[in-house]
Design goal:
The structure is a single chain. Helix content is 49%, strand content 13%. It has ten helices and nine strands. A hairpin with a 2-residue loop joins strand 3 and strand 4.
């Protein structure tokens, strides 16, 4: 299976990367974070929020691997979590062969990622949940191995704001028992796709932390030499790069196995999710450590990657259930490859 991006994907990646760098510089997270939801419309106007939806359902008709490249760039820039939530909403609608609400695809509506505090019956959600979004959400996506749902949040819903360590993210506590179920879907193909997009976003975060400290190591000097000249700095950065490469290749492989409906697609998606989260957390920690004492100060960006990595670890039920799942899955031998 060829993991090399095609010429079309190379062009797409170039366009996405340039747009994300322009629209989502890290310095924005030190300013007016209330404006984060405004970025949704910019991505919606380009059709990127439903890029993997078929054209018949209002999307752009790209594949999962293409969408993973978008999520990876969003992760590098610590993009709004509601962008990822909108992409997950579109994928749930696709799995159910239903059109995604137009206000989600256009970026007009804010979508939250719902993390239940206990097991939830996906057919009738009835539990206290933590919602993570950028502003007041109109929808919430609930994703799990047992099924995924897109819920509409009514204006009179009881949403209780909570302080969030990640300053650009709105965290709310809510009960979605009375909310309208917009669409519900389940199946291994959907679950593999959801995990792959979350993994791709997390890979981008790991790469962002790596790039941040690599650039800092070129300009920060001690005893008249850049700190990157010392093995104690150079070697940890090399380990960060190795983690990124491992997580990225596994994530793209997971995307391709899901697109080709291989029976082991979910296993590869779980592996990608775990490796990406591990890379993001360890790289963020290394980035802070190699910055020295200033790594935890507010004016630097290093701590932002650790906060976002800690937040993303909660998505899709966390890592422990995924590890239990992959241990219980049978090993599948695929011949002829």
């Amino acid at each position: 299976m060829d993991l090399t991006p095609s010429p079309i994907q190379e062009h797409l990646l170039s366009e996405i990367s340039a747009f994300v760098k322009e629209q989502l510089p890290l310095k924005r997270l030190h300013g007016d974070i209330a404006a984060e939801s405004a970025h949704l419309r910019a991505f919606g106007e380009l059709g990127w929020l439903g890029m993997s939806l078929p054209e018949t359902l209002g999307g752009a008709g790209f594949c999962l691997a293409d969408e993973a490249l978008l999520c990876r760039e969003l992760g590098r820039a610590l993009g709004p979590v509601s962008l990822l939530a909108a992409a997950l909403a579109a994928r749930i609608a696709h799995a159910a062969d239903r059109p995604c609400p137009l206000d989600i695809l256009s970026g007009e509506a804010v979508v939250a990622i719902a993390c239940p505090t206990a097991a939830v019956n996906i057919a009738q959600p009835n539990a206290q949940m933590r919602l993570f979004a950028n502003g007041a959400p109109s929808y919430a996506v609930l994703v799990s191995a047992h099924g995924c749902a897109l819920l509409q949040i009514s204006r009179d819903a009881d949403l209780r704001p909570l302080p969030c360590l990640e300053p650009s993210v709105t965290m709310l506590e809510a009960s979605l028992s009375t909310e309208a179920l917009v669409v519900r879907a389940e199946g291994d193909a959907l679950w593999a796709g959801v995990l792959t997009l979350i993994a791709a976003t997390t890979v981008g975060m790991a790469e962002g932390a790596r790039d941040l400290i690599a650039e800092y190591a070129k300009v920060r000097q001690t005893f008249g030499r850049p700190i990157g000249a010392y093995q104690a700095v150079r070697h940890p950065i090399a380990e960060m790069a190795a983690r990124c490469e491992q997580a990225y290749t596994q994530t793209m492989f997971a995307a391709l196995t899901a697109e080709n409906a291989r029976p082991d697609a979910v296993s590869h998606a779980i592996a990608a999710r775990f490796l990406a989260q591990q890379a993001a957390t360890k790289n963020a920690d290394g980035c802070i450590q190699l910055h020295g004492g200033i790594g935890v100060t507010d004016e630097y960006d290093a701590h932002l990657f650790m906060k976002r990595a800690s937040l993303t670890a909660l998505f899709a039920g966390g890592l422990r259930p995924l590890l239990d799942d992959i241990i219980e899955r049978p090993l599948l031998g695929i011949s002829g490859e």
